[in-house]
Specification:
Structural class: alpha/beta
Number of strands: 19
Strand content: 15-25%
Radius of gyration: 23 Å
Number of domains: 2
Mean pLDDT: 81
Order of helices and strands: HEEEHEHEHEHEHHEHEEHEEEEEEEEE
Distance between the termini: 75 Å
CATH topology of the largest domain: TIM Barrel
Length: 413
């Protein structure tokens, strides 16, 4: 009884002092190895298993020291309940479900102003926070996502590129953006033209002076125009995730204090403010969102080197090869399953660390599986898991890993 009384006393003291106990960690999301189905790109739930991230017991209102806060920055693009789902286009209904999950998990959704104030040491936040960002300026952000964000009272940030502000086609108008500003939207720059990484690399290869003039237009002019339209702009989002040291060094001269990448991971108090981690939430893979809102610390870690696991290496040619050293410009991951007899090609699934389940393409004639990476890779290593079934119902899973080295300079556009 004395021991029980002591434990209760300690707990009461902790509550009175505003401290909270570190919860037991959750098991990380299992890798799906279920069979694929045509027309359905979402993860198939396991029987009798709740796939919704479990809310851990913690105090969601307790303000903690800056180094105890972690922020999951979410990146979205386009929304629709009728158009075909792609990596960049998500079902509006799924977006609502994700916002509801954030509410159920009692995660604090913060504004960009709060995020910056926290990083500058001017504001204390709860231990687990979410920052919502929207790239490009798609009209569906206004028609589909904005009403949902209003309903939940969630602030958000629009990263806009200035050549996509006409209101023509699927783009938003400045008036739509100003309306959203009244209800919690912050504005950041996504460059002037949203050039793909190949165009940036080509410009950089032309020499220091040429690249500086290129940055003046893409990063500097964008900041000026957006500031004229919507007020002072001090945040930037790298188009396609492409970032070089020269870009990082020049951003402050254009008025930017923070810049966001497409590298997944929780943001801590020691984050490089010009290379901020962000989870890009694809319409084709719900596991990325689940990972983002899972605040188990084991879920944060990215591999620091390729894991060697000879017992599970694939029994067929793959690219990049197991244990090899690729670079940031890696464009494709592939596997040749032509030696697998009785292969059910509809059952093939590929998962890549940092991306979750990916929309790999399968050639029914050669049984080759290929996935084209949508962005540059900045993680130090990637692990690929491939699963399939044969027509007799037998399921097999294999995986391999390879390291990522910094890309070499290229003069090709």
């Amino acid at each position: 009884m004395k021991r029980l009384g002591l434990m209760i006393g300690l707990m009461v003291c902790g509550l009175v002092s505003g401290q909270y106990f570190e919860p037991l960690p959750m098991d990380p999301d299992p890798v799906s190895v279920t069979s694929g189905t045509s027309g359905n790109t979402s993860d198939t739930p396991r029987a009798s298993v709740d796939q919704t991230p479990r809310a851990e017991v913690y105090n969601p209102t307790a303000l903690v020291p800056a180094n105890q806060t972690r922020v999951a920055v979410l990146g979205y693009h386009n929304f629709s309940n009728s158009k075909p789902v792609t990596e960049m286009l998500m079902r509006t209904t799924e977006f609502r479900e994700q916002m509801e999950t954030i509410r159920k998990l009692q995660l604090r959704v913060i504004s960009m102003q709060e995020f910056l104030a926290w990083r500058q040491g001017r504001l204390r936040l709860p231990a687990r926070c979410v920052l919502i960002t929207m790239d490009d300026g798609w009209k569906s952000v206004y028609t589909d996502a904005f009403p949902i964000l209003q309903e939940y009272g969630y602030p958000f940030t629009l990263f806009l590129y200035t050549k996509y502000l006409s209101g023509r086609g699927d783009s938003m108008t400045p008036a739509m953006i100003r309306e959203m500003q009244k209800y919690g939207a912050s504005i950041g720059s996504h460059s002037t033209s949203h050039y793909y990484p190949s165009r940036w690399k080509h410009a950089e290869a032309q020499g220091e002076d040429f690249f500086k003039a290129f940055m003046d237009v893409e990063m500097g002019d964008s900041q000026k125009k957006l500031s004229e339209l919507f007020g002072a702009i001090n945040t930037y989002c790298y188009p396609g995730g492409f970032v070089t040291q020269a870009m990082v060094e020049n951003l402050p001269s254009y008025g930017y204090t923070a810049a966001f990448t497409v590298i997944p991971g929780k943001v801590g108090a020691d984050e490089d403010m010009l290379r901020i981690h962000r989870y890009m939430v694809f319409g084709t893979d719900s596991s990325i969102f689940r990972r983002a809102v899972n605040f188990d610390r084991r879920n944060d870690a990215e591999p620091t080197q390729a894991k060697r696991n000879s017992s599970s290496l694939p029994p067929f040619p793959v690219y990049p090869a197991p244990g090899s050293r690729g670079n940031e410009d890696l464009e494709q991951i592939s596997a040749q399953l032509g030696t697998i007899e009785k292969l059910d090609i509809r059952s093939i699934q590929m998962r890549v660390s940092g991306f979750g389940r990916v929309p790999a393409q399968v050639d029914p004639t050669t049984q080759a599986v290929k996935w084209n990476l949508p962005m540059r890779v900045y993680m130090p290593a990637l692990t690929v898991q491939l699963s399939w079934k044969t027509t007799d119902g037998k399921q097999t899973t294999t995986q391999w890993s390879f390291d990522i080295a910094p890309a070499t300079q290229s003069t090709q556009p």
